[in-house]
């Protein structure tokens, strides 16, 4: 945890809104999984969609991290930062031919979750190695938008289509070296993880998949956003996962690699968004704290109704009152919290929005033409500016530069 006094200092040094990431915690969480999961041939792939901050990616690389990527640009960013292609898995989704060729040229392994994409990949690149994403038929995740398995999801190949997968692979001489599933984000109980694992493992018999090198159980490891959230027994999780997989490998006749690809678990708790209150209103008794950030910087409360803990950094002992903490975007839904009890807020107070390391900056936008905040990474007692907020003037110039309007 970064102390509040330090967050205030960072805000003074770099201005607000400001994202702060605790690099030491990120490494602790990443490496901690290797200690937690009781299985020696383990690879943890950081799902870089959670936060593609290059400082975080470089830091993880120093600690030998693997990556889960979902777009060609994510693959290119990882390669440019020095990740070797064999440390990257590319999980495609509605892939175009052009994207397929772009990524294939990098030598990164494809994880394919649609029969038609597999057929296309086989036609273009017969004889390749490939990983197959199945839908493990378990509904789990923090809300319906992040449940990525079960009857209605767009993700993965149905387990009942396993023979079709095998036929396509045979036709094109594809070597299936990995099987994959991802159940959802923020999976509520360990039992749901085990159920997904068992479902996928039930498909993975040697007769059907003789060339397996690994099985990837996806991400979704839960993070506590609220102090009252149900606590996961991670020790039990790590032990049980190891047991399940060992048992499977015994039947399979070979010690395969086990992959997990968490995003939130590694980075969510490391992040803080520091914002400043500049406008207070009393709207017929409803107190509204207007800030200098908005859902263009952190959309999870608006999009998913997610809870993010907020603290008043500069008046922590103020009398508690109930506030709507809102942003500066021209939409009524632009609130970080509604009817939240907080120590009295004054104009000029700094607030911190916590657990903001995953899917916050990375889901940001330039909506209302407001630039994204500065991001700093703190590790080993260093304080590094990784991305710098660009000025309003520069942003306007950039829009013009990247457009072609002169002929209009
Ligand atoms: N692997 C695959 C194939 C995924 O689709 C995802 C996330 C992950 C791994 C990492 O999941 P995690 O460990 O981070 O839960 N924007 C949402 C989360 C979307 C997750 C999408 N897929 C949120 O803010 O809650």
Describe the structure.
This protein is α/β, with parallel strands linked by helices and 408 residues long. The protein folds into two domains: 23-267, Alanine racemase (TIM Barrel); 269-400, Beta Barrel (Lyase, Ornithine Decarboxylase, Chain A, domain 1), CATH 2.40.37. The chain has twelve helices and 18 strands. It has helices spanning 4-14, 23-36, 54-62, 72-80, 97-104, 115-124, 162-171, 190-201, 234-252, 264-267, 300-304, 392-401, and strands at 18-22, 42-47, 66-69, 88-91, 109-112, 129-135, 157-158, 175-180, 214-216, 257-260, 271-283, 286-291, 310-312, 320-326, 335-343, 350-353, 374-379, 382-387. Strand 14 (320-326) and strand 15 form a beta hairpin. It is globular.
Structure characteristics:
408 residues; binds ligand LLP; TIM Barrel; 18 strands; 9-stranded mixed beta sheet; 8-stranded parallel barrel; 24% strand; 30% helix; 2 domains; alpha/beta; Lyase, Ornithine Decarboxylase, Chain A, domain 1
């Amino acid at each position: 945890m970064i102390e509040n006094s330090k967050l205030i200092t960072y805000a003074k040094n770099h201005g607000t809104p400001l994202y702060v990431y605790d690099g030491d915690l990120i490494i602790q969480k990443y490496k901690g999984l290797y200690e937690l999961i009781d299985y020696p041939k383990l690879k943890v792939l950081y799902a870089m969609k959670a936060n593609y901050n290059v400082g975080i990616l470089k830091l993880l690389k120093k600690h030998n991290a693997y990556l889960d990527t979902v777009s060609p640009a994510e693959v290119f960013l990882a390669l440019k930062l020095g990740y070797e292609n064999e440390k990257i898995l590319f999980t495609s989704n509605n892939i175009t031919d052009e994207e397929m060729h772009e990524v294939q040229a990098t030598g990164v392994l494809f994880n394919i979750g649609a029969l038609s994409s597999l057929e296309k990949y086989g036609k273009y690149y017969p004889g390749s190695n490939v990983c197959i994403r199945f839908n493990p038929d378990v509904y789990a995740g923090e809300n319906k938008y992040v449940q990525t398995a079960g009857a209605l999801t767009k993700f993965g190949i149905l387990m009942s289509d396993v023979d079709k997968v095998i036929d396509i692979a045979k036709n094109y001489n594809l070597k299936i070296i990995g099987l994959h599933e991802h159940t959802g984000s923020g999976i509520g109980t360990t039992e749901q993880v085990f159920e997904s694992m068992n479902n996928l493992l039930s498909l993975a018999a040697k007769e059907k998949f003789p060339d397996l090198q690994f099985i990837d159980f996806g991400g979704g490891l839960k993070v506590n956003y609220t102090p009252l959230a149900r606590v996961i027994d991670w020790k039990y999780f790590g032990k049980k996962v190891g047991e399940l997989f060992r048992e499977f490998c015994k039947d399979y006749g070979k010690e395969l690699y086990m992959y997990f690809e968490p995003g939130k678990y590694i980075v969510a708790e490391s992040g803080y968004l520091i914002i400043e209150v500049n406008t207070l209103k009393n709207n017929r008794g409803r107190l509204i704290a207007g800030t200098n950030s908005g859902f263009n910087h952190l959309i999870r409360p608006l999009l998913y109704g997610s809870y993010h803990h907020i603290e008043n950094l500069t008046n922590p002992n103020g009398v508690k009152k109930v506030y709507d903490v809102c942003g500066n975007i021209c939409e009524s839904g632009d609130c970080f919290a509604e009817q939240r009890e907080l120590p009295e807020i004054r104009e000029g107070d700094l607030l911190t929005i916590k657990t903001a390391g995953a899917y916050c900056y990375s889901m940001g936008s330039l909506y209302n033409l407001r630039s994204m905040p500065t991001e700093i990474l703190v590790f080993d007692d260093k304080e590094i500016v990784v991305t710098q907020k660009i000025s309003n003037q520069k942003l306007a110039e950039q829009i013009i530069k990247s457009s072609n309007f002169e002929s209009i």
